[in-house]
Amino acid sequence: MADTLLESVPGWSEDQVARMRAVGMTTAAQVVALSATSRGLSSLAEQLNTSEDKAENLVESARAALPPSERAEMEEVVDTSEYGLGALPPRSDREDS
């Protein structure tokens, strides 16, 4: 799979690409995958300092730039319920050592 860089996606400004790069997101596939999460679109809008409607338009541009098989893979919701968040429970909930 070849990465489709955000700077090559129609409709994405240099500023928007830079804002996403600042958080480690550089490809259309990453944006599409983020949008498939529960708060993905609102997170994207916050990062881009824009409305959710504008963020949705940008996601649509990113989707259109991907090959159909990659787009389908990135839009699939993943069950992460079996994975922890890497945080310990509050001290009061842990057994004393």
What's the mean pLDDT score?
Answer: 85
- From the N-terminal CA to the C-terminal CA, the straight-line distance is 49 Å
Range of strand content: under 5%
Please give the radius of gyration in angstroms.
Answer: 17 Å
- Biggest sheet details: none
**Spans where pLDDT lies below 50 across 5 or more residues:** none
String of helices and strands: HHHHH
DSSP helix fraction: 40-55%
Cα shape: globular
Structural class: mainly alpha
Number of strands: 0
Count of all domains = 1
Assembly state here?
single chain
> In DSSP terms, counting alpha (H) and pi (I) runs of 4 or more, how many helices?
5
Q: Care to describe what's here?
A:
The chain is mainly α and 97 residues long. It has one domain. 47% of the residues lie in helices and 0% in strands. It is built from five helices and no strands. It has helices at 14-21, 28-35, 40-48, 52-64, 68-75. The N and C termini lie far apart (49 Å).
SSE inventory with pairings:
Elements: H1 14-21, H2 28-35, H3 40-48, H4 52-64, H5 68-75
Describe the structure concisely for a colleague:
With 97 residues, this protein is mostly helical.
List keywords for this structure.
97 residues, 5 helices, mainly alpha
